[in-house]
């Protein structure tokens, strides 16, 4: 990507560098917490990129790790960049979702598996609205318009000058649930077909005939980045929230699972034929 990384990635970059410096200095998390007069969990949150240190705390850490002058300057610039507000701050997203959206904004490639829903980046406005309206435990009626607009804003990455590469595995169950919303189903299926024609978007349907598979327990997403931006991360969502996965081994295993599912899913040509059959059902033909 040509633009500079956003604040979410900057916080993760800062945390990774601070972790590296701490380990090189042979200092434990508990020792750092004692110096900062905080809980060890706060140090871990800084190193994971979940939180950003204040300027005085960063100065203390750089002194503790005996960071050279040139490193100190870079880390302070990174800290300031991480403290900026991303475009998503306007929409007042929950923190767990804001963290994901920040990473998605800077990603080069996103690969997702969706078992029950149409992927967020391929949803129509009506479908987005319906998903928020039924999730009454997550969004109040007055929040729906704002959340719908935020999701549609995310979709702009697919048509930007340097577009996101997006590959989606959609369970046939998600299509069946879409048919259960007859007033919005046809438009949504047509949108899937249109989106799949874009050179940077690939869609495969995992049919019921595939039987049990390697991700029966849930959906997930794997994000990759240009070199120097971030290592790959993953994301998993559940009924009351979601979280980023940055453990390298876990991300690698999820990436392998995605590849296995991609190979088991219908190829693009067969997926298009299936989607046309589903569209016929949605249109009552």
UniProtKB/TrEMBL annotation:
HTH cro/C1-type domain mapped to chain residues: 18-72
One of the Pfam families matching this protein, by short name: DUF5753
InterPro entries: Cro/C1-type_HTH, DUF5753, Lambda_DNA-bd_dom_sf
GO terms of molecular function: DNA binding
Protein name stated in the entry: Helix-turn-helix protein
């Amino acid at each position: 990507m040509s633009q500079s990384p956003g604040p979410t990635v900057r916080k993760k970059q800062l945390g990774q560098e601070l972790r590296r410096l701490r380990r090189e200095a042979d200092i434990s998390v508990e020792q750092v917490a004692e110096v900062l007069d905080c809980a060890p969990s706060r140090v871990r949150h800084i190193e994971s990129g979940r939180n950003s240190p204040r300027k005085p705390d960063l100065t203390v850490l750089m002194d503790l790790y005996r960071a050279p002058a040139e490193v100190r300057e870079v880390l302070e610039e990174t800290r300031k960049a991480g403290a900026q507000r991303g475009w998503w701050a306007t929409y007042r997203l929950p923190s767990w979702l804001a963290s994901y959206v920040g990473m998605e904004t800077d990603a080069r490639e996103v690969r997702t598996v969706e078992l029950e829903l149409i992927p967020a980046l391929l949803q129509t406005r009506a479908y987005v609205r319906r998903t928020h309206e039924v999730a009454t435990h997550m969004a109040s009626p007055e929040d729906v318009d704002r959340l719908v607009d935020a999701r549609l804003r995310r979709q702009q990455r697919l048509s930007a000058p340097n577009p996101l590469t997006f590959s989606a595995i959609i369970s046939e169950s998600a299509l069946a649930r879409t048919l259960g919303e007859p007033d919005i189903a046809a438009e949504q299926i047509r949108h899937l077909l249109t989106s799949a024609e874009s050179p940077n978007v690939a869609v495969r349907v995992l049919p019921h005939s595939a039987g049990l598979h390697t991700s029966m327990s849930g959906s997930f997403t794997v994000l990759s980045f240009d070199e120097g931006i971030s290592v790959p991360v993953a994301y998993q969502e559940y009924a009351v929230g979601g979280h980023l996965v940055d453990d390298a081994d876990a991300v690698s295993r999820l990436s392998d699972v995605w590849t296995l599912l991609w190979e088991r899913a219908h190829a693009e040509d067969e997926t298009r034929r299936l989607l046309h059959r589903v569209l016929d059902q949605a249109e009552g033909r």
